[in-house]
Amino acid sequence: MTTVATAPVLANPRRSRTLWQDTTRRLARDPLVIICLLYLTALLIMAFIPARLAPLSYEQTSFSDKLASPGTIAQDPKLGGHRYLLGSDRLGRDILSRLIYGARISILVALMGAGISFVIGVSYGLVAGYSSPKVDNLMMRLVDVIYAYPALILIILLQVFLTTLSQQDLAETHGVQRLIVRLDQDSGGLFFIFVAIGAVNWLNMARLTRGQTLHYRQQEFVQAARVVGASRWAIMGRHLLPNVIGPCIVAETLAIPGYIYTEAFLSFIGLGVQPPTPSWGSMISDGYGALRLAPHVIFFPALALSLTMLAFNFLGDALRDALDPKLRNR
Amino acid sequence: MIRVIIRRLLWFIPVFFLVTGITFVTMHALPGGPFDSDKTPPALVRQMEATFGLRQPLYKQYTIWLGNVLQLKFGPSLAARGKPVESFLLPGLAVSAQLGAFALLFALAIGLPAGILAALKRGQWQDRLAMLISILGVSVPAIVLGPVLYWLFGLHLGWLPVAKWADPSDGLWPYISHAILPAVTLGAGLSAIVARLTRASLLQVLYEDYIRTARAKGLAERVVTIRHALRNSLIPVVTYLGPLAAGVLTGSLIVEQIFAIPGMGRYFVSSISNRDYPMVMAVVVLYAFIIVMVNLLVDILYVFIDPRIENT
Fold this sequence. Notes:
The complex is a heterodimer. Helix content of chain A is 69%, strand content 1%. By secondary structure, chain A is mostly helical. Chain A has a two-stranded antiparallel ribbon. In chain A, α9 (191-217) packs antiparallel against α11 (232-268). The longest helix of chain A is centred in the last third of the chain and has 37 residues, at 232-268. Chain A starts with 6 loop residues before the first helix and ends in a 7-residue tail after the last helix. In chain B, α1 runs antiparallel to α11 and α4 (86-120) runs antiparallel to α5 (125-139). Chain B contains eleven helices and no strands. Chain B is mainly α. Chain B has helices at 2-29, 42-51, 58-70, 86-120, 125-139, 142-156, 172-206, 209-216, 221-258, 265-273, 277-305. Classes of the chains: A mainly alpha, B mainly alpha.
């Protein structure tokens, strides 16, 4: 198409736009995208400075205010007439404060899970797709075998392993064990959730990237680069990566709700973050226990979890449509 | 056809060794043993461990276990002091399988028509509504939907029973009514995925040349849609049934917990925290086997939907 540069076009030179400029333009025009981004930004702020936003500490209990309804004023004199905007849970803890602190976990899992699986998956898929068929076949068979491992069992095993380890005294452990325990403590008990999520989800990303790479490596611009004498790594990094990365970003965005849910799910069955650290999953679990007496306890964390997953799903869909308008309505 | 089946079955062998190997090593790397408790004297613990062969080297334990599994014996449950693992797992599996079947049925019964309607009415309000509901469906997870349905229909309105599972022998309505809420909770997300897949795939097929040919030769639109488009559009949907069924399996863990259903999901976590090694191994093998079998089933289904595949 570039060869049909005729005179009138040259006379009226329009600045060419890159794929990403096009994408951002289309995204910025969608009000739904703006709403999702605003919501996620608010969550991000909550995750970074929960202490400034939350009215109370997340572990502040009050036994005279158990299961307080939304909007009631605290009975406990030491809380000085604090108003429970969203009510309190069965230990009399302020739900709003716990909700704000809980955003930390979900956002962290979303970012770390996406980062780990993206980096591992994309580089693995790129190398497999650009290697000789023999190496490619071997690498993808490995992916197939790991894929057959029931992901949830792997995650639960790793979580039990870690919770047992972290209950031991740091002084008694040594070597790798000690390193793992330290890592886990430094990440607030989330280390293996990240590892497990990353370990399970890079497989999808690797398959996708490999498929894309196989498609693009046949094309003229890659051959041209090879003829000019570009090295393997330069071709993969500079020529293939920018082309394959679009669908990968879309797939990764659409995978984030899954990561957030995995953490919530683990915390729900008691294998996630350790109490009293609040996570939306453990708050839903608490609320489920009080479902008969006080349905409001489960309502707000459940709403927050669903809205966050919804925002990432909307964003992923919009990103896909914006990146490739041909795919719209698919 | 036969070759496909044999290849799939052979595929189970490396999967089996990888899955059981990793699980075996990880389980035994966990600190603590199945008989540890504050009350039991250490000498007795050692004796118990010797009785169940836990004091032998790890590779030896694994080969002994392997030999037993080849005879389809999964060993005694250590938490239940020697009752065979199968006596717990099989009744649980039966319940979980029924729940899973109900959920898949619900997902297909809602997802397929919704996806077809959305594709045929592309861009109209039916399409927009179906897609809005489907994106909500994938965003509201079971740990949210379950308690909401539980509260609304079980406690607030009192229309449906909760926290029990009925046997078909208790009568048809009790059986179905106990299964509705858990099955909907488990199937809702799947139905949303099925709807989106069906819509996408049908839209793609509707623009194929053979559809234009079918229209050009004067076939009724209904015949074109049903006989020519729909059948071909189901191929990608069937492909996803394998991973979807695996999702049902793992998802049932949470649904069983919410609705207090005696499925096999509860052995998932309890066996690991009890260090009940034979139980963990049996659960893992069973799950891996089910996933491999579901994929095999999908491959066979393929041939029926798309005759072109048989020759490859």
